[in-house]
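Here is one such protein, fold included:

. . .
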Amino acid sequence: MPTDRKNLSIRTKIILIVLIGIIGVGAAIYAVSTRVLIQSYLAIEHDDVVQNIKRANDAITNRITELDVKLRDWSSWDQSYAYAKSHDPQFEELELHDLVLFNLEINAIIYFDLNGKPFFEKVVDLERKERIPGETITSAIITQTDIIARANAGSSTAGIISLPEGSLLVVAQPILTSFNEGPVAGTMVFARFLDTQAIEHLRQLTHISIKIFPYNAPALPEDVVAAREALSRENIYAVQPISNGSVGGYTVLYDLNNRPAFILSIDTPRNVYNQGQATIRTFVAIGGFATVAIGAILLFLLEYFVTSRFARLSKEVAAIGVAHDIAARVTEGAKDEVGQLADTINTMLTELSIAQKKEWESHEAEQAAGEKLKERMKEIERLNGFMINRELKMAELKEENVKLRKRLGEPGPIAARDEKTPI
């Protein structure tokens, strides 16, 4: 593997580096978008859902307030005050007939005396426009002893209580004169079920999908059960996705005894989250396109200003090596690192050319000296041959001289001359 990396060309290495850079930047963009941006959108969605829960809760509170305002007109009224003292049946016939409850949009009117005992009650079904038994409501209110006690003390009470029939909004006020003067003649109660009609009215008012579940109901949707486990007096609101298209918000509604009675649930579209997802996808797409574009531009610039020049320089050096022409020169171009390398190569080629020229001159000088040496050797050989012939000749003369002296039988001056005087 290391050998393979060494054999890679510069162009291939640059492409690999740029590709790794593009992948790294793309991974960073994706990580930032999925971990940072999506968390920001989730936080915005959470805050938006919490605001919607508060709006829904405020809408219920407003319904209780409206009920309290309606009751005040009745509890602080001279005729109602007189009825609480006299229990006059004529007042019941004239003022407390069923149509009054329908017009007030309430389910129940109950009068209590100072001992907390009801002396008049009327309960109606607003949807079917008919009277229904009211023992359950009356009994539930009687068990809320604080309601009667506070009213008898001159204080009003408002809240929500849980009944088998559903959630019931209850307001109670002391019965006083039209000038809000006493003494208190008893307690008057208005009650309104948070039934389908009332909840639909809240939906139209707030433009929020509102649902109310009994807190201790045995069968609850999974999201409501999970929210119930997450909610507490410290953690007032819970937000959790229901699906990719909707998110739920939850809070607890407490009864008059400050005990958990209901879970208020809202279901809102995940517009913020989905918009965030779309924005992130757009961001990733644009970021990816920009990264690829920048990578392509970078590759082009590197190819134009660096890689191609290195490739050209390599080809020119290879051509010089193949032709063995050190007199040729490479293209230098700009005076950058590549140009400096080309200049260094040209300087090296120049020095090699000079060295080669000196080598040829030295070789020619050696050849000339060799020729001269050969000529001298030939001359020496010629002289040596001449000397050898001379010696041979003298040897022959000496031999002839000896023979002559023997023939003449006399040594004499000839022998002496032969030995001392050259012929």
